[in-house]
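cron nightly-structures :: item 1 of 1
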Amino acid sequence: MTEDVFTVEILVPVVGTEEYETGETNEDGSLVLATRPCLTHERREVDLGKESMDKLLEALQPFLAVSREPQTVPAQGRKKRAKASA
């Protein structure tokens, strides 16, 4: 770490798509699949000087004020997601 430079890890929201079963069946008896939008996150790192770090914290303040601790999702509850739209 360089003096007065901070490496910050961020999760960037990304809109992608996920497949889901519609509850209908195809003629061959297989389940009908469809896609829908979903929100995923991309993990990134950025190196910020003190001024940029202060700006980031100031911009995040309204969101941090209403934020909560993340909830854990059981492994079996996670859905397979397609790649994010570019």
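cron nightly-structures :: done
The radius of gyration is 20 Å.
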